[in-house]
Amino acid sequence: MKRRHFLALPLCFAPLKAFASEPEIFTGGEMGAALSGYDAVSYFGEGGPMQGAIDFKTEWKGAVWLFASAANLAAFKATPEAFAPQYGGYCAYAVSKGSTAPGDPEAWTVHGSKLYVNLSPGIRQVWKRDIPGNIARANGYWPAVLQ
User: What per-residue confidence (pLDDT) applies to 31?
Assistant: First the structure.
């Protein structure tokens, strides 16, 4: 039997994700803003999520955030961690599986006073089957999943 010698090239076979890292905050949509331009504070109000306006914007963690009103902008600036989506606005279910996927601002859940977004309404339904378990798993991967 003939022996073959292979030159090991570990870098050639490493996953591409090892070479690139995702930004901490997912930005999507036409404006390239966090939550695709939706007002993070509005998810916690009676009317539900609203599109933000360029007149009420701020930067936080390297992303632009838009708000529907000066009051919502002020509330976010005072305590951004209270309103920003968990896992940087990436799909919370994807993070619970050790990956990232875009977050859809219309596929959302507020649980335990925290905002979670998912890839789609269908994935949101899967997420909702075990929110506490999914959060525990996602917390184990976050933020290392960005690397």
Answer: 76
83 contact partners, CB below 8 Å, separation of at least 6 = 40, 41, 43, 44, 75, 76, 115
Q: What is the DSSP string of 98-138?
A: T---PPEEEEEEEETTEEEEESSHHHHHHHHTTHHHHHHHH
List the one residue out of 76, 77, 92 whose CA is nearest residue 43: 76
CA dihedral of 78, 83, 86, 90, whole degrees rounded to 10? -110
How far apart CA 33 and CA 63 sit, in angstroms, is: 6
Q: Say what angle helices 121-128 and 131-141 make with each other, to 10 degrees.
A: 100
Provide mean pLDDT across the span 56-72: 97
Contact 76, 63 (CB under 8 A): no
Q: In whole numbers, what is the pLDDT of the chain averaged over residues?
A: 88
pTM confidence score = 0.85
Q: What is the rounded distance in angstroms from the CA atom of residue 84 to the CA atom of residue 54?
A: 18
What is the mean predicted confidence (pLDDT) over 71-75? 98
